[in-house]
Amino acid sequence: SVSQKTHLNLQRRPAAHMPKARALTHFLAFASSRSSMAASMAAMSTSASGAAMDGEWDEAAGVWRGNRAVDAGVEVPDPLVIFGYGSLCWRPEPSFGEGASYPCRVSGWGRFFAQRSTDHRGTPKSPGLVATMLSDAQLEAIGLREAGVPPSSTIGMGYEIATESAEGVLADLDFREKGGYTREVVLVQPLAGGEPVKALLYSATPDNPNFDKTMLDPDAVRDDSL
Question: Where in this chain does the entry annotate a coiled-coil region (predicted)?
């Protein structure tokens, strides 16, 4: 009868459609995993504080994409100490708070005015010039330092950051140093004595697009209109 056929069809339909149901389930699971993977990859492109991980460059603005310094995967000192070698020496960020600060020295690194700036000291059409820190190894790699000579030495300021302020300080500095800078961790020696301290500094390395090697080479022809 019709009712019997309908009953049989209703009984058979779930079995007949099981492959499609499984396919749909697998597709949804796959789509979900792809979505999760994309989200994970996006999260991996920035650090917890927002610093860029991949160093992709925004040519038009003359800064790292995302308006953040490059993280480079360094382990941020805990407790956090910031090594300032330029304007931070006399004008620390307000977010630094009231923690201890002291003059200190870092060995194996030199301070140079060799970084073009399109945000702090200039514009994309007329970049200014700001300071950076370069390691002796970096200088040797670009042919501006001979191996075996005594290490460089630079005096700056160390700033101890309270644990509850560390995340905000990193976010402020990552944004401030978006114009070609990368996080680096160094050992600094307080001038008053005591044990060396791990500190975070921001370095505009020779491979960033705003680096101006001619400012380090007295024999090179400089084009200050760049």
Answer: none
